[in-house]
Structure formats: C-alpha cells, structure tokens
Design goal:
The complex is a heterodimer of chains A (about 270) and B (about 70).
Chain A lengths: L5 H6 L1 H4 L5 H9 L2 E5 L5 H11 L3 E5 L24 H12 L4 E5 L8 H5 L4 E4 L4 H14 L3 E7 L2 E7 L7 H5 L18 H20 L8 E6 L4 E6 L30
Parallel strand pairs in A: 1-2, 1-4, 2-3, 4-5
Antiparallel strand pairs in A: 5-6, 6-7, 7-8
Helix pairs in contact in A: 4-5, 4-9
Chain B lengths: L2 E5 L2 E5 L4 E2 H7 L8 E5 L2 E3 L8 E2 L4 E6 L8
Parallel strand pairs in B: 1-7
Antiparallel strand pairs in B: 1-2, 3-6, 4-5, 4-7
Classes of the chains: A alpha/beta (about 270), B mainly beta (about 70).
Bound molecules: zinc ion.
The site of zinc ion has 8 residues of chain A, from α8.
C-alpha cells in the first residue's frame, strides 16, 4: 500500500472522487506498469493520459526521431523536439506532467526476437503502432505471455479499438486472421489522418488501460469499437473468440513468434 | 425479389434473391475485399468461403476493416 502525500491527494482528487476508482484504485494505478508501443499518433495521447493518471511505471517503445510531419497529431512532441528521439521527447513530457511516474524508454523497433523481453513484466500493453506486421506480433506475444492489451487503428477519419484479455476474449487474430496482402495498397505514410482522430482513439486506449488496472467498468473485450468522425458515428461490434484462431485457440498453429511480412494500411 | 439484410448495423434491402458474400462486398462498393474481415450473425467467415457462402434473408453482416495508424515502432 502506498501512503498518499497531501499533494498526491490533491493531484489525484478527481480520481479519488470516483466511486469505482477511489483511493484504492489510485493506489493500483501508482503500483502498475503499462507499456506503450509507439510514441506516435496513438501513443502520444495515451502516454500523456497514463502519466497524468499516475500509472507508476510507463514503458514507451519507439525507434524514430521526431519529424515535422508528426506534429499535426503526435501531441507529446513539440516543435523544439524535432530531431530528438521520440522516446526521449515523450519521457521528458511524461515526467513533466507527473513526477510520480517512472518512464522506461526503449529506443527500438519491436520484432519477433525482442518483443518478449520488452513486454515482460508489464500489466497492460497499448498498441500504438502503424503497421499490421507489428500489430499481429504484439497480439501474438501478448496472448502467449498472457498480458492484456489494447489494439488500436486509425485511418483518415476512422478509428477502431478492441481490448484483448488473452484466452478469455477474442484476440486480434481471431478477427483479422493474418495481415492483408502486401503491395495491394498505398503505404501508411501516404494515407492521411485527422490529427484529432488519433487523439480520440489513443485516449480510448488510455481509458481502457486505466479501467483494466482499477477494475472500473468493463473493458472493450469481445467487442470492436469503430467510429467514423465524419458523421461522428460510433459503433460497437460484438465479437467472439474464433475456435480456429491460429494463436489463442486450444490447438494453435502459431506457437512461436515470427515477423510477418510488412504490409501497408490504406483501405477503400 | 428483395432481400433484407443488416450490414454494419444498418438495415439494407438488396434487390437480389441470392448472392455470395463476395458478390455482396462488390455490391456494397467494397473495392478491396482483402482489407475486410467478414462476420455473419456473429461468426467469422473464413476468407476462402467468401466465394461460396450465400447471403440469406435476415443475415446480420459486419465488414470489419483492417486499420493501421499510429507509429512505426
Ligand atoms: Zn484469437
């Protein structure tokens, strides 16, 4: 149990006031470890809310440096950070938002050989990556290691997210099987996205992490939340586990992590 | 003949007696069926069944799109 200081009681007062969070929930947050893969459009808002909420330890993984085209949506990075490693820039902001937080930066691309070491020991993982190969890898590694995670995807004015409780609820592979074929479509960097749409989705992912850790409400398990910000329609599609899922079924065909072929991300 | 379906939560009427999922995808203007995962009445449909599964009156069909976005971590 963590004893709160006066200033912590004040800092977290709006959480403590919530019946389903309270002092106990806030203590859980401060004692928890959340990993955010990607310090980009989704990871930026997710990291800021996780830090502000007092998640005790936040891991952040990204191999890239801040570029000017990132700033339209990756709100954790500022114009002065151009050229800096995204994980350093993100760490600086998270620590500035909340000195209670310990940030564990990992400057790397996740792949089949390093992902288990990277995710190990975290209570919850937020997938803020932009490509299907990594999304499937995060899914498979989290299912195998039994770590719950939030999947997120955005494109143009659309977003989608689901929370996976390994072997309890539908996983990403239950729904999407395998990455879409390569060379079909333009690359992610050619597809646009409304900056605020990234913020909407990354914020939902942060909320899922906070709910999972505090036990407040029900996470988005066995459901895919999709929205289209043009008409501003939200929809929750019920999902169920696929008995033939290659990774989370009784007899999985994938028992070892592998790097999927890189595919792009546009759709029509 | 008009067939009543629910597609992505919306009631739709299709002026056809029967069609396969693949035909339905084309009919609904899905240009890249490879980027779509299909669920019918809550069950996943394997991609190789798009060609053979006949859509029936009253089916609830969800097209779930692949969506990337985020960061190249
Ligand atoms: Zn599965």
């Amino acid at each position: 149990m963590i004893d709160f200081t006066e200033s912590q009681l004040e800092r977290y007062s709006r959480h403590i006031l919530l019946d389903s969070v309270g002092v106990e929930g806030q203590q859980k947050l401060l004692g928890s470890r959340v990993l955010i893969v990607g310090a980009g459009g989704l990871g930026a808002p997710a990291a800021m809310y996780c830090a502000a909420a007092g998640i005790g330890t936040i891991g952040i993984v990204d191999a890239d440096a801040v570029e000017v085209s990132n700033l339209q949506r990756q709100i954790i990075h500022f114009t002065d950070d151009l050229g800096s490693a995204k994980v350093s820039s993100a760490r600086e902001k998270m620590e500035a938002i909340n000195p209670d937080v310990t940030v564990e930066p990992v400057k790397a691309f996740v792949n089949a050989s390093n992902i288990v070491d990277i995710i190990e020991g975290y209570d919850f993982v937020i997938d803020g990556t932009d490509n299907f190969a990594t999304k499937f890898l995060i899914n498979d590694a989290c299912v195998m290691q039994g770590i719950p995670f939030s999947h997120g995807g955005i494109l143009r004015f659309n977003g989608q997210t689901m929370t996976v409780l390994p072997k309890e609820s539908a996983c990403y592979r239950c729904v999407f099987h395998k990455p879409p074929p390569k060379n079909m479509i333009p690359t992610c960097s050619e597809a646009g996205v409304l900056g605020a749409v990234a913020g909407m989705l990354g914020t939902v992912q942060a909320a899922e992490a906070l709910k999972y850790i505090t036990g407040a409400g029900d996470v988005l398990a066995d459901a895919l939340l999709t929205f289209d910000a043009l008409p501003m329609n939200f929809r929750k599609v019920r999902l169920k586990r696929n008995p033939n899922c290659a990774v989370c079924s009784e007899r999985p065909s994938i028992t070892e992590l592998r790097d999927e072929e890189q595919a792009a991300c546009d759709l029509k | 003949m008009i067939m009543k379906l629910t597609i992505n939560g919306e009631k739709k009427e299709v002026a056809r007696e029967s069609m396969t999922v693949k035909e339905l995808l084309a009919h609904q203007g899905v240009e890249m069926p490879d980027m779509v995962s299909v669920q019918i009445n809550g069950d996943f449909l394997e991609r190789d069944a798009f060609d053979s599964r006949i859509v029936r009156e009253g089916d609830e069909i969800d097209f779930l799109y692949f969506m990337g976005g985020g960061s190249s971590a």
